[in-house]
Structure prediction request, 584 residues.
Amino acid sequence: MCGIVGYLGKKQAAGALLEGLYRLEYRGYDSAGVAVMDENVIRIVRRKGRVKELECARHLVGNIGIGHTRWATHGSPSEKNAHPHRFGRVVLVHNGIIENAHALKEECLTRGEEFSSETDSEVIAHLIERYLTGDPLLAIKKACERLQGSYALAVLIEGKHAIYLARKKSPLLVGKGEALLVASDLPALGNISHAYALEDGQFALLKGDEIAFYDGELRPVSPKEIAFDREEGEKETLCFEHFMQKEMAEIPAVLARSEVDFATDSRFSDFYRVLCQTEYIQIVACGTAFHAGLCAKEAIERLARISCEVTVASEYRYRDPIVKENTLCIAVSQSGETADTIAAALLSKEKGAHLAALTNVAYSSLTRAADSVLCTNAGREVAVAATKSFNAQLFVLYSVARALAFSRGREAPPMQCFSALAYRALEVAEEVRSWTPFFAAAKSAYFIGRGADYVVALEGSLKLKEISYLPSEGYAAGELKHGTLALLEEGTPVVAIATNEDLAEKTMNAVHEARSRGAQIFLVTTLPGLAAREEHSVLLPPIDEVYSPLISVIPLQKLAYYTALARGNDPDKPRNLAKSVTVE
Ligand code: F6R
Prediction:
């Protein structure tokens, strides 16, 4: 949700800023810009569109600069709304949302100040300039005290050879190597030896080759160093055309790593003590992570007989949720930076829940807020559409479901070698390539299933609409006849997921109802008898139905990918979306 970068070193800043922006592009890609200072003069280049449109800024001279890639919240995607924004001596980039921007802007307008963009961010530059009478950090602090909402800020001041940073609720990291670097996410820091995270309410000053961190009262504080894998982030798409393709191909490896982590992980054993005391479970998450939570509910309630409530984080945070004693709240988030998930998780913790973060980013904001951390170890996920992280979340959540069952003296079906099953699923799922002409030409599509298969239907539908832009719905198979059947026309594609032997024939009843109304049926199943009956089917390897979403989602991920390609879309960067949703 917007990415920011900064560079202060001995080389030309523009190249390093562009490299950082390319790596952050997944956070937003409707416009981009950089500001580079040379001899106390700050030059800004901004462009509508992707970072490649900004290549013309590479020639900018100067060894200090800041940059931004935008996902529009206030104001259309355009050059004038692109960051950096300048007012007087102040040039800044901002990630987050300023909720009281309108009132602050009115205040500036009455002072006769002019605005050149429709963004909420520009007003911050006005405030800093207003308070800029001495120490720039003090001016930034005073400006921040006026702001409501969230921000990660990198600021240049004409005449000062330094980068000033401030953070509230939006992520901001600083790296030290041959140069000092700033970024919203670790991979964008490039070649560094140390990385530090600004905490909420902190400020930082990058000057010469030193970084100084300050608390909210501008008292010096020790920075929080982040451990990181130097190899990570260097792996590019290699032989794959798209990150999404690469990330799906990594699912078996991710599951193999998870099998090792959760067989031997001592943190998980510590967590077992928490599980023994848990009487209620609440899961909060958004999007695909929410679907992982729904799958977990199926497994937890079935295996452990513990009540599990799963709520979309943006709803949970504005309800008055009931948190009973001995509640475990599991906040699921690939990025660990989703604003709604963090807010919901904190609310649950405040009401007395033990908060466990299930995330793919060990240094994320969610991790820092949690009482226990469960890491998915899926590796960096670049494509906006989540794939391998979903499978990794499922693995951990199923491990939790099993541990809960054991803590109650209950049995749970053994975990098979899921990595091998996923490998086979990837192979057989290639069949969906032949389905794509039906989807590419369709006006809408439907996914149906029962139980865990219904949750997979929801995820398949989300993935399809997200990257192919084809309107689509995931539906409980039994509900189709209560309204949605009216939408089916001759040739409307309906994908049925049937992995549960007891429910499969019930799902097939809905299939027959749909087919009689002209629907074109596509089946994803683990049951050979069913597959043999359908013209278009993917037969997955046998897997215990409790865990089946781990592999039944794979053909649907591929279906979305190939349909996006057939419709001429970029599957890695779908329109209007961004990978990490750090705003409400
Ligand atoms: C869908 C997708 C989104 C995310 C959602 C939550 O493919 O990627 O729906 O799942 O924005 O993101 P995280 O998991 O980072 O909290």
